[in-house]
Write a structure and sequence with these properties.
Helix content: under 10%
Strand content: over 45%
Low-confidence stretches: none
Radius of gyration: 13 Å
Order of helices and strands: EEEEEEEEEEE
Number of strands: 11
Length: 124
């Protein structure tokens, strides 16, 4: 099993920045991709970004390209989501997820482990 714990959420003004962290523990050798998803009130959970755990290649949703950066620190078993130029529509609960297969995925069904989520609120 892999446990994921997110941190770094909070309240920020539009145009500001936040950095989310996702600390992984347990069978971390099983992780090949880490992703971030978000769910706004009364909306479906949606893909935000993903990073390959070994090679570091990244994938982003169009809505966050150029504003968000996903990264990981293998030595610390931690993934990050740097969010800049935040907008009110970025307000959501952000979830970290980990995937075992070697191929990347943007669908939440492709992820095997999930964190509890962290709230991000952007005030306009």
């Amino acid at each position: 099993q892999v446990q994921l714990v997110e941190s770094g959420g909070g309240l920020v003004q539009a145009g500001g920045s936040l950095r989310l962290s996702c600390a992984a523990s347990g069978r971390t050798f099983a992780i090949n991709h880490m992703g971030w998803f978000r769910q706004a009130p009364e909306k479906e959970r949606e893909f935000v970004a993903a990073v390959s755990w070994i090679g570091g290649s990244t994938t982003y949703a169009d809505s966050v390209k150029g504003r968000f950066t996903i990264s990981r620190d293998n030595a610390k078993n931690t993934g990050y989501l740097q969010m800049n130029r935040l907008k009110s529509e970025d307000t959501a609960i952000y979830y970290c997820a980990a995937r075992r297969p070697f191929t990347p995925a943007t669908n939440e069904r492709g992820y095997d482990y999930w964190g509890q989520g962290t709230q991000v609120t952007v005030s306009s």
